[in-house]
Design a protein that fits this description.
elongated, 4 helices
Length: 123
């Protein structure tokens, strides 16, 4: 069922992006505000975010990140599972080269499918 693979991939992308959102937000904060003068580090960055808006501020902007990553992960997961079925020899264990080719094609298919949305987003 290809649609189940799409849903599973989208859910996996959403969960992974949500779990790593505080670290991603900290990364951006450190890139923008860190300097030798203000001595902003990991712990002080987290403290700054918590003082700025409480616990919810750790996930600020996460919704748009989930909207961006969910379709890409969904296509990648579905394409990988479909490619495995095409290249796999029934009755044997999936070989490394079959995984490699399946993963490579899945990445190419996902990027080709998502690219028009990325172009629209940047325009």
């Amino acid at each position: 069922m290809w649609w189940r693979q799409l849903v599973a991939g989208a859910a996996a992308g959403a969960v992974s992006r949500t779990c790593t959102a505080p670290l991603d937000r900290l990364k951006v904060l450190l890139q923008v505000h860190a300097s030798k003068k203000n001595n902003l580090g990991i712990l002080t960055g987290f403290r700054h975010m918590l003082q700025e808006g409480g616990i919810k501020s750790l996930w600020r902007g996460n919704g748009i990140n989930v909207v961006k990553i969910a379709p890409e992960t969904a296509f990648k997961f579905m394409a990988y599972e479909q490619m495995k079925r095409i290249f796999h020899t029934p009755g044997t264990e999936l070989k490394m080269h079959e995984r490699f080719v399946s993963g490579s094609l899945a990445g190419a298919i996902a990027q080709t499918t998502i690219y028009p949305m990325e172009v629209l987003k940047t325009n």
